[in-house]
Amino acid sequence: DTVIVEAGGLYALPGLCDAHMHIESGMLTPARFAEAVIPHGTTTMFVDPHEIANVLGLAGVRLMNDEARQQPVNIFVQIPSCIPSAPGLETPGADLGPSEVAEALKWPNIIGLGEMMNYPGAAAGDPRMLEEMSLTMAAGKTVGGHYASPDVDDGFHAYVASGPADDHESTRESDAIARVRQGMRVMLRLGSAWHDVESQITAVVEKNLDPRNFLLCTDDCNANTLVFDGHMDRVVRHAIACGCDPVVALQMATINTATHFGLERELGSIAPGRRADLILTDDLATLPILEVYARGRHVASRGAMTIETPMINWPDDARHSVRTGRRLDKSDFVITVDKSPKDNLITANVIGILENLAPTRHLRFEMPVVDGVVSIDVEQGISQVALVERHRETGRVVHGFVHGFGYRGSMALASTIAHDCHHMIIVGTSHAEMAMAANHLAEIDGGISLWQDGYEQATVHLPIAGLMSDSPAVSVANELENLTRAMQACGCSLNNAYMQHTLLALAVIPELRISDLGLVDVNTFSLTEVFV
Amino acid sequence: DTVIVEAGGLYALPGLCDAHMHIESGMLTPARFAEAVIPHGTTTMFVDPHEIANVLGLAGVRLMNDEARQQPVNIFVQIPSCIPSAPGLETPGADLGPSEVAEALKWPNIIGLGEMMNYPGAAAGDPRMLEEMSLTMAAGKTVGGHYASPDVDDGFHAYVASGPADDHESTRESDAIARVRQGMRVMLRLGSAWHDVESQITAVVEKNLDPRNFLLCTDDCNANTLVFDGHMDRVVRHAIACGCDPVVALQMATINTATHFGLERELGSIAPGRRADLILTDDLATLPILEVYARGRHVASRGAMTIETPMINWPDDARHSVRTGRRLDKSDFVITVDKSPKDNLITANVIGILENLAPTRHLRFEMPVVDGVVSIDVEQGISQVALVERHRETGRVVHGFVHGFGYRGSMALASTIAHDCHHMIIVGTSHAEMAMAANHLAEIDGGISLWQDGYEQATVHLPIAGLMSDSPAVSVANELENLTRAMQACGCSLNNAYMQHTLLALAVIPELRISDLGLVDVNTFSLTEVFV
User: Fold this and answer.
1) Residue B15 has pLDDT above 90, yes or no
2) Exposure of B332 by Cβ count < 10 A (0-12 exposed, 13-18 middle, 19+ buried)?
3) A33-49: burial string, b at 16+ Cβ within 10 Å, e else
4) Which of A37, B15, B52, B183 could form a disulfide with A265 if both were Cys (CB 3.0 to 4.6 A apart)?
5) Pairing of strands B11-14, B447-452
6) Looking at the complex, does the CB of residue A157 fall below 8 Å from at least one CB of chain B?
């Protein structure tokens, strides 16, 4: 059955590997994600299904792994290590701990432990974290790292010694050098919003460190990036544009990555018994992806898929995961105070959005109170934020205020992507629209929806766990474009505005966040009140 | 407790790793082997205790691992994969199969499966071999290779696809290239008798292949080499002398090897939580090993140990392993024929020794018969060979003839090293001396002993499993020197003469061998008779 491919004048390269990524960031199922990236030459992905695990627990990881295993390309799955991300400060849909890690390590296609985000815990010897890492290493598998602090002192040393073998959170050349000196492999990241290659690849290009311990990854790519810019081909081209030798840049996206995960014989070889994943191109520097082969099959040609990517039958649990337990009413979003404050003003703790940055600021504003109800003071740039519990059918609503979106008029934006627990987050200037947007998301099983003056303006449909679409990437990208325009029409001109929205509950990054348990002061890792 | 070492003007290098070796080849216990090689800068060894496993089974592997774990340097142990080496043609002291592999994989310090010597079986899908490899890979550990054929065709492809990740048996540049093309790592070997570096390192030095997949190893070093020439330092110096860049040669004995076994973070790093194994030297090309540190401890200085290497208490089973069950008499070695043959001559199948080569030739000689007894015809260059069963106390004697040692007079040489089953092999020109040598070895619990004219002339004492000494390397080296001189005095001037003796039973290498079941025709993998 041998097929002979005439490729005179072309280069044959190993298929590209993404060393660390989250499929959910594309808002696509594994099948739809694969369909989007294969024409870009990606044939291997190392994925941490951290988001779906927050919604559906180990069953969600299993579903991702089941669909991953059916793909024509390699999607190796890591077991999420930190669920919940912020223990005691939030309630995910399910917990994952050492016993779940031990269980998942028995499954096929599991490649290791997902990024160890609890770096203070790992460094301090938190028994739960150490046990998860120890189980993984005993199984001969790789522990992923995530060390998000700029310090490379004692805490860093303790963290690296505890188990994580790689890190994608470094941003400076000196960070990268510190990591390889410590015996880690560095993952240089170019995601939709992360730009960490240029600042660190100088360690190889200028400082001449051995490149074998440098890998490329995306971490998070949204559907727009995948559809309009590419995937790992984009990262390799960028590394070359930063002065990296093309062959070295390609090694950082192929053999280096395969070696890191113990797959150096399995991947990248054209030999009997191996996975013949390869790309044909006619230029190593600009890297046009002409033809793609995965496990010996021709899977894409000149940017288009030549085969389909199989989907699993996602079960009801996954398709109807927005469980608020009741319809919400605009009264659910009204914030009242017991007695009229002095001058009808009350001091509120307000989440302050920072343009282009993941951290927020902890702001304080004087808010007007009218008839015992706290007004949403758009003049001061403030919107109301609400988190609706959606995993256990309590429909419980937690209140807060946020500054920086710039919304005006009568509107609300609701999302069931709400890192990391993925409850429902609603930001709005009107209680009525907040209820409308929330109820709509419950009806359509999740997504991101913007309502204005009583009408739906734009919706991204994400019916799988409220996180992912099983429609093609281009349709999600179009919905996202519409959403961005609709947000702008409401006065929000932030970069990556919907990402800022979905990060409001990320209770591990300073300074102030909202969770299902209340407002979270991330500087002190404690819950706090809306009003001072 | 920090100790500051002033090393101005010196280079600090990672300690050297031997990628593949057998401790038993040094005729030394792990502790004594470590003591001999640490001053040469070896701090990590990957060892396959194949010989002791043939004598004592899994218990022998356990004892080696127990002593290995106590050493100040790293001795990682592989589980022997092929015991017996030639199923159906020989009887080792114990079998090792998939269930023993599964058991040993649970032990600490086990790094993978030992060299898969049954390459025809692995290539043909022998279920026992596939199960051993599959268990090892499922545990995330490395399968060692041993592909001793010059063919790199279908059988080679099937072999590599079956699991082995490395090979140290290639001898030509084209072999080395074929192996890395197939996704294997190549181990370039310089042992006491193996010289496979110079002929293959051209793949890197001249053909510019990426050196990261090339490793250095010794496979087999006797005590003389260790005492007089060195260990991995000798191999690295040789690689440099062959034109290899010193840093690349050092990588082939450090980071490349560590990476192959998934230990790249553990070994070679000076960082918290890692094993600080390092060497201080003042010249990278001539590589004098000035100081050696292992796991942060100063273990050797200017060629001498600064600490002791701990020994286990070897149990009676291991110390009294020469179990013939009875004293042997010279009559046990007399070969009689039922009726007088024509002209008093009988045609015998004779093992023909080839100078400097492991294979033997299958020769035929007319042997004189006197009074029904076959004479040992030293005029034709023939000695008698006998294999005495020593594992199950049967004392059974198998007879044969051997050509090429050149022995004269009245002598016999007996050895309890007799690859791979390690019964007792005696070669002699006199039935009486054959019995004396055999009985002496049984009394002293094993070794190699040469008797002449009724007296012991030289003996290497190997009381541990009949294979190893727990005396210092220099004492074993001196005994071996004496033995070599005594063999020369008996007329044998072969290179590595005692090695040729100990390989007479190696029933996996053509053409004619002797086992406890009879003469073995290795070309047809069948038993044959002494007389045609």
Assistant:
1) yes
2) buried
3) bbbbbbbbbbbbbbbbb
4) B183
5) unpaired
6) yes
- Residue-wise pLDDT for B425-464, tens only, equals 999 999 999 999 999 999 999 999 999 999 999 999 999 9
Cβ neighbours for B316, distance < 8 A, ≥ 6 positions apart: none
The identity of residue A274, as a single letter, is R
Q: Which H/E stretch holds residue B176?
A: helix B173-181
Global pTM value? 0.94
The 8-class DSSP code of residue A337 comes to -
CB contact under 8 A, A139 and B141: no
How far is Cα A186 from Cα A170, in angstroms, rounded to an integer?
8
| Contact predicate A168/A217, CB 8 Å | yes
Cα separations in angstroms, A222 against A126, A167, A218, A356, B362: 33, 21, 10, 16, 71
In whole angstroms, what is the distance from residue A360 CA to residue A149 CA? Answer: 16
Packed helices B30-37 and B473-489: angle between N→C axes, nearest 10 degrees = 100
Q: β-strand A397-403 against A382-388: which pairing, if any? A: antiparallel
Whether the upstream peptide bond of residue B355 has omega within 30° of 0, thus cis, is no
Q: DSSP string spanning B46-95? A: EE--HHHHHHHTHHHHHHHHHHHHTSSSEEEEEEP--BSSSBTTB--SS-
Take residue A407 and report the two structure tokens written for it.
């919304």
Cβ-Cβ contacts under 8 Å for A516 (sequence gap 6 or more):
A90, A91, A387, A389, A396, A398, A421, A423
Chain A, chain B: beta-carbon pairs less than 8 Å apart: 63
**B342 pLDDT higher than 90:** no
Chain A interface includes B113 (CB < 8 A): no
Least confident range of A317-321, A398-402, B323-327, B507-511: B507-511
B125: how many CB neighbours lie within 10 A of its CB?
10
At B435, phi and psi to the nearest 5?
A: -65, -40
Cβ(B365)–Cβ(B401) under 8 Å? yes
How far is it, in rounded angstroms, from Cα B532 to Cα B530? 7
Contact yes or no for A271 and B181 at CB 8 A: yes
Mutation target vs B (from A137, A180, A260, A264; most B CBs, 10 A cutoff): A264
> How confident is the model over B164-223, as pLDDT tens digits?
999 999 999 999 999 999 999 999 999 998 899 999 999 999 999 999 999 999 999 999
- The 8-class DSSP code of residue B199 comes to T
Read out DSSP for A431-500? Answer: HHHHHHHHHHHHHTTSEEEEEETTEEEEEEE--BTTTBBSS-HHHHHHHHHHHHHHHHHTT---TTHHHH
CA B351/CA B353 separation, integer angstroms: 6
Q: How far is CA A367 from the centre of its chain?
A: 34
Cα B142 to Cα B136: distance, rounded to the nearest angstrom = 7
**What sign does the dihedral A158-A161-A163-A168 (CA atoms) show?**
positive
DSSP, res A28: B
How many alpha carbons lie under 13 Å from residue B422 in its C-beta half-sphere?
A: 30
Which of A140, A162, A272 is closest, CB to CB, to B157?
A272
Please give the Cα distance from A263 to A278 (Å, whole number): 15
Question: Does A272 touch chain B if contact means CB atoms closer than 8 Å?
Answer: yes
Place A453 in a pLDDT band, splitting at 50, 70 and 90: very high
Structure tokens, B347: 């045609």
Angle (nearest 5°) at CA A33 between A27 and A38: 155
Residue-wise DSSP of A115-174: EE--HHHHHHT-HHHHHHHHHHHHTT-EEEE----S--SHHHHHHHHHS--EES---SHH
Tell me, yes or no, if B264 comes closer than 8 A to chain A by beta carbon. yes
Torsion angle in degrees (nearest 10) through CA of A265, A266, A269, A273: 110
Interface test with B, best of A137, A269, A275, A277 (most B CBs within 10 A): A269
SS3 content of chain A, % helix, strand, coil (to 5): 30, 25, 45
β-partners of residue B413 are B427, B450
